[in-house]
Amino acid sequence: MPGVSTQVRVDAKQPAASAEIALPILLDVSGATGLALHDTRLRQVVELIESGALLTVHDLAVKVNLSPSYLQHLFKEHVGVCMTRLLAERRLQKAAHLLAESDMSIKQIAFAVGYEHASSFVRAFQHRFAQTPRAYRTRKAGSANTTADSVNSSPFHP
Fold it and tell me: What's the pTM?
């Protein structure tokens, strides 16, 4: 698109055990003049995604007054990332955080991050992190206990 500079940075490395995957999106249209209407819509979509809100493609499309299919097409064309994959990754990151930091059940977490069926969530989580949500939580709890034990066994701890 003439006059529009679009830059995208996606760190798509996905180590199996880490929930600290960053998928920053930089949509740089700052120096552009005469932005097309869909550029401001895409910027709004990127801002909504980056805000951490767990929205669906349909939700985002409604917010920017586009059809879901056209929004996905524009997003892929101009940002270079499949929107559904990005949204799924955001959900799984949020789920990993909840597994590590809360005592919510796996079913509650599945619903909280937008999955209608816990079994679909477990399957997606296992595919992404190469372990079940329960194993992930157990591993994270074990590493937290090890850290707490090392702090408590410090010679400076009374």
Answer: 0.68
User: Number of folded domains in the chain?
Assistant: 1
For residue 158, being part of any structural domain is answered with no
CA–CA separation, 106 and 134 (whole Å): 8
Task: Quote the domain boundaries for residue 111.
Answer: 37-146
In three-state secondary structure terms, 16 is coil
Crossing angle for the helix pair 68-79 and 83-101, to the nearest 10 degrees: 90
* Helix (H) or strand (E) segment spanning residue 30: none
> Is the distance from CB of 21 to CB of 13 less than 8 angstroms?
yes
CATH of the domain at 128: 1.10.10.60
Give CA–CA dist 106/129, Å, rounded.
15
DSSP state of 25: -
pLDDT in tens, 7-32: 334 443 343 333 333 444 444 443 33
Contact indicator for 4, 35 with CB cutoff of 8 Å? yes
26-81 residue pLDDT tens: 444 433 333 455 678 888 998 898 888 888 999 999 999 999 999 999 999 888 88
